[in-house]
Structure formats: C-alpha cells, structure tokens
Amino acid sequence: MMLRLPHNEVPRKMRYPSGMTDSSHDSLVDQVPRVARALRRRWAGLLQPWELSPHQARALRVVCTHEGSRLSDVAESLRIAPRSATEVVDILEYRGYVERTPHPHDRRATMVVATPKGRDVRAEIDRARQADAESFFAVLSDRERAALGRTLGKLLADD
C-alpha cells in the first residue's frame, strides 16, 4: 500500500510495522543503497583484469545467454538506448568477445554472437563474481542469507 498525500501535506507521524521505528526505517533506507554501492564497487574492481566495465560485462552476459541477439535486443535487456548498445558491443567486438553476423532472415538486421574467447571470459567472470559474493556474504549464516534472499525477493517482486 502506498501512502498518498497532497503535495503540500507532510504526515505528522508515520506508522511502521511492529518493532520498526523511525530511526530503523531511516537506517534501512540508508543501508540498502550503501550495500548496493559496496557491491557495485567490488564488481567494478573484480572486472579490472578483463578491462571491462560492469555495463560491458552485463552486455557480454546478455549476448552469451541469448545467442544471436539483435542490437535492439541487447539494448532492451540492458534497458539502454540502442545507440549505447552499439557502443558497448563495439568495445566487446574490439576485444574479441563478440562478433556481428548477418541476421539469417532479415537482411537489414545484424546479430551479435559471442566468440569462444567471449564465452571463456564470461565463465571466468562468473566464477570470480561467485567467489566474491561468497566472500561478501560470508558474515551471514546460511539461514541469514536465505532470509535476506527471501526478503529482497519480496521487495523486488513488482520490479
């Protein structure tokens, strides 16, 4: 349920679920983005050996997962403009991770496919990311990680 107020009216006292105070709500609002930033910094650092940005790594994952993607499909999957997808694919192609091929049924379209080198790099990145995630979340017990996963899943259910 979303609280709707006229634009000039501020609630005097918000009600939070049992056990959640104003300060714990503020804490969550501050802590979740901090955790996300920490993960993004780790992810960016992790990609340094391959000289890839997180954006480029996500594009490589899309191309490897959806073999024979159109540039427009890559853009849609990454939620970016087609022009931006072209730039990202240009970099991946320059590094030898992907190649452009003609679309088999549409002469106007170009497909993006992963090269064997690109598939190998993606697999290396996935292993490194998994190891890093295990390290990051190691402070949590198995039970806490499972609860966090369920909680985040609930929060992202409508995303």
Automatic annotation (TrEMBL):
Q: Which Pfam families did the record assign?
A: MarR (PF01047)
Is Lipid metabolism found in the keyword set? no
- PROSITE patterns linked to this entry: HTH_MARR_1, HTH_MARR_2
Is this entry keyworded Transport?
A: no
| GO molecular function terms noted in the UniProt entry | DNA binding; DNA-binding transcription factor activity
Q: Which UniProt keywords apply?
A: DNA-binding, Transcription, Transcription regulation
Q: Which InterPro entries match?
A: HTH_MarR-typ (IPR000835), MarR/SlyA-like (IPR039422), Tscrpt_reg_MarR-type_CS (IPR023187), WH-like_DNA-bd_sf (IPR036388), WH_DNA-bd_sf (IPR036390)
Start and end residues of each stretch annotated as Disordered = 1-27
GO aspect biological process, one term:
response to stress
Residue ranges spanning the membrane: these are none
* Ranges annotated as biased composition (Basic and acidic residues): 1-12
List residues of the HTH marR-type domain: 25-157
The protein, known as: DNA-binding MarR family transcriptional regulator
Q: Which organism is it from?
A: Antricoccus suffuscus
